[in-house]
Amino acid sequence: MSRILIIISTLLFMFNSTMNAQGTTAIYGFVVEKDSTAMTGVRGIPFCTVKYCDINDHNVVEYMGVTDLRGFYNLGENIPIKNYHVVIETPGYDTISKDMGNFPTQELLTLHFEMTRSGSVPVAARQCYSLPDLKIQKKQKLSEAVTLIPGITVDEYGNMLTEEGDSVKILLGGQNVPFTDLAQFDEIPTSYVSHFEYYDITDFNTVYSGIVNIVLTTGQNTELTEKPFVTDMFDL
After folding, report:
1. Which ranges constitute the DSSP H helices of the chain?
2. How far apart are CA 206 and CA 104, in angstroms?
3. Sign of the C-alpha dihedral, residues 189, 136, 46, 28?
4. Starting from the edge strand earliest in sequence, which strands make up the sheet with 193-200, in order?
5. Could you tell me which residue, 150 or 207, shows the higher pLDDT?
6. First to last CA, the chain
7. C-alpha dihedral, 38 to 125 to 119 to 67, nearest 10°
8. What is the mean pLDDT of residues 216-233?
9. pTM of this prediction?
């Protein structure tokens, strides 16, 4: 097993082992395009806003996230197992707005959704930066390297922001990762990085204005090749 897989597996284990609160779970899943198949090409939908809202007052957002380049979202850990009103939205697709609940009591809860295309789907502007472009040394810490991307700053709490102060999300190999502390990325050697991608998702998402994707040289980037099972069994 490669070193980077060991690092990611260790971080995932640490993430899962913290979920001990009674009556809570970790919620994650895929958002995919309806009618896409393994034959025609499964389309996971990136940059969707995923909101789990109060079941009675839909304006109260309790948990919120964004899908990665595969269409995968991860709302985090220790989420109370109860009824929610789920809203998923992104340009070019009909918004999902539904009540869900009666979830089983388990540490990990996988909830997938299908979205129906309603019009043209915009393409997020992307900029690529190699390590030489940013004058990054291979021995430099990864948490320092990402701050050299033009237009990116880090506040006193370690949050990545645009120069305008809007939130920026970071992906590893196109995927959501179960940690937000920028310093945790220092476990990954900068020499494993092929280049950085910056996506401007201002028009896509209500949570983040930009996404930094760390593209790896070790072939760890994956694609969604099989359509996940989408269920309505928890609809209220």
Report:
1. 3-17, 142-145
2. 30
3. positive
4. 125-130, 193-200, 210-216, 168-172
5. 150
6. 43
7. 50
8. 69
9. 0.82
**What pairing do the DSSP bridges indicate for beta strands 160-162 and 72-80?**
unpaired
Q: Where are the beta strands (DSSP E) in the chain?
A: 24-33, 49-54, 61-66, 72-80, 84-89, 96-100, 108-110, 113-115, 125-130, 152-154, 160-162, 168-172, 193-200, 210-216
- Residues 95-121, mean pLDDT to the nearest whole number: 90
State the virtual CA torsion across 138, 144, 145, 146 in degrees, nearest 10.
150
- Per the structure block, which two tokens stand in for 9? 């597996």
Q: Using the 8-state DSSP alphabet, how is residue 42 labeled?
A: -
Residues 162 and 87 sit within 8 Å (Cβ to Cβ)? no
CB atoms within 10 A of CB 15: 16
Residue 209 buriedness (CB in 10 A; 0-12 / 13-18 / 19+): buried
pLDDT band (50, 70, 90) for residue 5: very low
Question: In the predicted model, what is the mean pLDDT of the chain?
Answer: 83
Per DSSP bridges, beta strands 24-33 and 49-54 are unpaired
DSSP-based three-state secondary structure for 91: coil
